[in-house]
Design a protein that fits this description.
Blueprint lengths: L15 E5 L2 E4 L4 E4 L2 H4 L8 H11 L13 H13 L6 E5 L2 H16 L3 E5 L8 H5 L18 E4 L4 H4 L3 H18 L6 E6 L2 E2 L5 E2 L2 H14 L2 E5 L23 E4 L10 E5 L1 H4 L15 H16 L2 H22 L3 E7 L2 E6 L8 H13 L2 E2 L1 E3 L5 E4 L7 H14 L1
Parallel strand pairs: 3-15, 5-6, 5-7, 7-10, 10-11
Antiparallel strand pairs: 1-2, 2-3, 4-12, 8-9, 11-12, 13-14, 14-17, 16-17
Helix pairs in contact: 2-10, 3-10, 7-8, 11-13, 12-13
Bound molecules: pyridoxal-5'-phosphate (PLP).
């Protein structure tokens, strides 16, 4: 008998029958409050009626037209809609299917535009699982161990991880920028460096918001040395942080922005956005693939952006995120095993530590499994596996946040 690959062996016993909004209805009749959203994907909630309808309608018109031979309306419309939310300088958009592919497209573009080989990434960053994206990922050895050689030209600099350093944020930023400056004179020549690549909030690396002062320091160094600043908004973008883009907590505008996940509520589509002058440094055929910018996914993306606007979901993410963070701080007072709570909007992480302050992955896993028993779906992350991450849908209600906190309290 054929079975699922052991690579898919899951810690969760949940098999979904159907889902709606913040809820997963399992085949065994149990009803789970979903604070995972398919790892930050189903932004408008499961099966939002407008997204379902847009996809259904598009499926009857045309499902797939490879975009170099036949252009389709949903992709043109999605480009217009993205234009309304992107920084005005990023006036050109290219499409792929997944976050990893879009990250690779961004790296290729930065290398083509500068003619330089090196990419500087930051400790704990997660950028995907294709071989090139895994080469850029430092959120844990499991993402790249065993299939070396990886892509060359990747150099890692420290991330200002204030809690783990035991410092305040300013000191952590100062340290990380100093280390970056040292890297740029010791191991990587600035004029051989194509790009800095960073997430506005480290995702799989532990739900750590990148301090605005650090992003500003990167922008300043990128400008000084002609290096492209690539912001990977795959997990933090599309309203999740309480701003449309995660980097909007700072004054920084990237050279290349990467988006995926929440852009189409679960349909696979991703994009990079850059100034047209930069995008023109690539050439047709250098990027893309058969399925990139699929018509049904693009139609779902259009509906998703409309829903985010019409239902004011960015504002909801901010309000519900504040409510969630307040509730988590109450839990932290009762449970010293929660060493740190951080996040932006509906992207909140709880870092579990032992009495000695070391990462406590065992407790994190136990709590995550206990939330499942209490019908709340959560995920773990972080290089040491000691961060519980909560990623509710942007449509989550006040009542659902309270319920999630109650179930988390029971699990703790
Ligand atoms: N970049 C970030 C920040 C991510 O969180 C992810 C996925 O979790 C990726 C890239 C890779 O995206 P995908 O899994 O769609 O390839």
């Amino acid at each position: 008998m054929t079975s699922l690959s052991p690579l898919l062996k899951q810690a969760t016993p949940v098999v979904v029958d159907h889902a709606s909004g913040s809820w997963i209805h399992a085949t065994d009749g149990r009803e789970y409050l979903d604070f995972t959203t398919g790892i930050g994907v189903t932004s408008t909630g499961h099966c939002h009626p407008r997204v379902v309808e847009a996809a259904r309608e598009q499926t009857g018109r045309i499902i797939h037209a490879q975009y170099t031979t036949v252009m389709h309306k949903p992709l043109l419309e999605l480009t217009d809609k993205l234009g309304a939310v992107l920084p005005s300088s990023l006036d050109s958009v290219f499409y792929a299917n997944s976050g990893s592919e879009a990250v690779e497209a961004a790296i290729r573009l930065a290398r083509m535009a500068t003619g330089r080989p090196n990419i500087v990434v930051f400790q704990g960053g997660f950028h995907g699982r294709t071989v090139a994206a895994a080469s850029l990922t430092t959120a844990g050895t499991r993402f790249s161990a065993g299939f070396a050689p990886l892509m060359s030209g990747v150099h890692m600099a420290p991330f200002p991880y204030a809690f783990r350093y035991g410092w305040d944020e300013d000191a952590a930023v100062e340290f990380a920028l100093r280390e970056l400056d040292y890297l740029l004179v010791s191991r990587v020549a600035p004029n051989d460096t194509a790009a800095f690549l960073i997430e506005p909030v480290l995702g799989d690396g532990g739900y750590l918001p990148t301090p605005p002062a650090f992003l500003e320091g990167l922008r300043e160094r990128a400008d000084r040395h002609g290096i492209k600043l690539i912001l990977d908004e795959v997990q933090a973008g599309c309203g999740r942080t309480g701003r449309f883009w995660g980097h909007q907590f700072s004054s920084v505008v990237p050279d290349i922005l990467v988006t995926a996940k929440g852009i189409a509520s679960g349909f696979p589509i991703s994009a990079i956005a850059a100034p047209v002058a930069l995008m023109s440094k690539g050439w047709p055929g250098s990027q893309g693939g058969t399925y990139g910018g699929n018509a049904v996914a693009a139609a779902a993306g259009c509906a998703t952006l409309d829903v985010i606007r019409d239902e004011e979901l960015v504002e909801n993410a901010r309000l519900r995120g504040d409510q969630l963070a307040d509730g988590l701080r109450v839990l932290q007072h009762k449970h010293p095993v929660i060493g740190n709570i951080r996040g932006l909007g509906l992207m909140q992480g709880l870092e579990f530590v032992t009495a000695a302050g070391d990462p406590d992955a065992a407790t994190t896993t136990a709590v995550q499994q206990a939330t499942t028993r209490h019908e709340l779906l959560t995920l773990t992350c972080g290089p040491a596996g000691n961060v519980l991450r909560l990623i509710p849908a942007l449509v989550v209600t006040e009542h659902e946040i309270d319920l999630g906190l109650e179930r988390l309290a029971l699990a703790l």
